[in-house]
Design brief:
By secondary structure, the chain is α/β, with parallel strands linked by helices. It contains 19 helices and 12 strands. Strand 4 and strand 5 form a beta hairpin. The longest helix has 20 residues.
Amino acid sequence: MGLIRLRTCLALVAAALFAVLTVASASAAVPLARSASTPIIPEDDLIQGTFSRSEIQHWLTDIAERWMASRSAGETLDLPGSHTPDIDIRRFHRHANYLPEFVMHELFEAAPLANPAPLAVRAPGRGGETCLQCQAKSRALQEAYFTPEVGDFMREMAYEVCLKLKIYPPHVCAGAVELFSPAAIEIIGHTVFEPAERCARLALCEPVMSPSLNITLPMDKPPVDYTPPNPRGNIKRILHLTDLHIDHLYATGLEADCPDPICCRPRPDDGTPLSRPAGPFGDYNCDAPMLLMESMLEYIRDEFSDVDTIFWTGDIPPHDVWASEKQAYLTLMDNMAELFHTILPNVTVLGAIGNHESVPADLFPPVSYQKSEFSISWLYQELAQQWSRWLGPRAQEQLRHGGSFLHELDSKTLVLSLNDEVCATHNLWLRMKDDTPGAECCREEFPDPDEMLGWLARELGAAERRGQRVFILRHIPNGSGCHPNWSQAFRDILIRFEGVVAGVFSGHTHHDFFEVYYRGGTAEGSNPPSGVDPSRPWDDSHLPREPAVVGFIAPSGAPLDGMPSFRVYDVDWDTRKVVNFQVHYADIAQGNAVVAARAEALNLPLDQTPVFPGDLHWIAGPDARAHYGLRDVSAVQLDALARRMARIGDPEGDDLFERFYHQYRRQNALGSVCNDSCRNSLTCRLRYSVTTETCAAV
């Protein structure tokens, strides 16, 4: 979530470059943000003049302020208050993923674009000489773009905009701009300036056709066993940890209320007196100290001696996105893997990759992108080595290739870890199209980067033939944060193999909730459409909409914005169906208070005060079945729960939602309030699992 305002700045970096390279006129009369009716450049000159620095900065600032205003109004669902109101880094969390689309729109619509549109007046229509001239001009612009001078301007202007908008303090702005600029330059150069794509957008060339989704699913879907699981049967417990966000620089006693994305770590001395010292177990403005992780794993060792499997669904590093370093992150991840192995030597830990594992954060170029300076293979190679404690040779090789793997728990049970960063809307590499030979790899319309979906479908098909059940691990919930094509295709594959899939387990949001996947394509009570859509790999749109599969979304183990938590699942091992789940959490305020009292009694500085294992207490929260009055936690039961909670004014619905929201907010440590609009949005969110679905559709 600390990336929200940073994404604003980085998107504006691209806008700054585009503005300076494609200026339309030196005249002050030319507006900097035009309407659709504003003329583009006169004649066909590529560049006639330049805007002043202040004019460009004004234009960029206007874009950012309008985006912020459009996205912040009335949003309360995922917006916990910050301890520093004027630097509310989480304010725009819910819509942050739409920022790149917003700025891209501005890039194509703003006055400074050097669009060769006058060509269309002299030679209207597509193709032929008009298209060739457009592409030639675009290539010239692209060549001008890839120069050191442009890179220097980009970094300088981005830093100025970051400061002017007070996005972050100067040291954060400087670090973020320096870290993200190389990839931003590369991506924008092959996106906005890509000749074929750009001229097609101007209707001067034929449209660029995106590759089609080439996944073949068997149409003979076998009958699905809808028998409810047995809560009193052969129960196996599986733990689910996610979003631990361990801060290797966390230090007790440092400032916990600061204007940076995260606090409780060294930062430049600005002369401000210490207002709230960081406690030894964490703070709601900070990521997790290693001491908290040790406490969590020791609690798991003592309380869950029967557990032999842990799902670990990504985001190990901290939110220090302005200062991330590959080697520091690799060391941190290795230390955490070693801690698991030391404290829980007989437990198999099966991980998935999160968006914060990369450096810079969020940026995962597909493995087919061959430029070594941007390759993400260093991460996959290292994780394969670190996780070799738990994975066999075949799974390690799969992980090295693309960040996903398949692991066999037993002859009837598989765990499939899916690298869903290839679908993430925050992964700007997916917007890129490189027109150099052999490098065409990405683009958001391209539905299956690294062929993850094809691999998923093949493995599920093989499991179906062998009579196996599969637990799917991924970082991002499918209903939010995935590109629409990928999100829809994942759902289609899941529903085709619903008899195989035991559940989808993810994190990313830091909240404690679920999403229901539905078979069928029509709302209840409506007439199903006739026929089948042949463009979809598995089409069930002619069937009524019915709950089918559950996406289990676990809360964060870090203290940022809530009590550090993890989930425990009860699984009927005869059917491999999840029967129940329960959250365990730690009240870090209570633990910190114990140590603070000891420091005062011993007259010691907080960072020199001894800490003992019993200082922090882990608490077993209510189990879902008892808490919500459920028979089990199947898709049918959770769908019914979401509908009951949506009944505003109904005593039962109000009570259920109050209970749910307390858990959703990780014991609501910050006292967040959810009004009716928030409640409608949240209960709706539980009932869709595809990015393009809306509340009106469910």
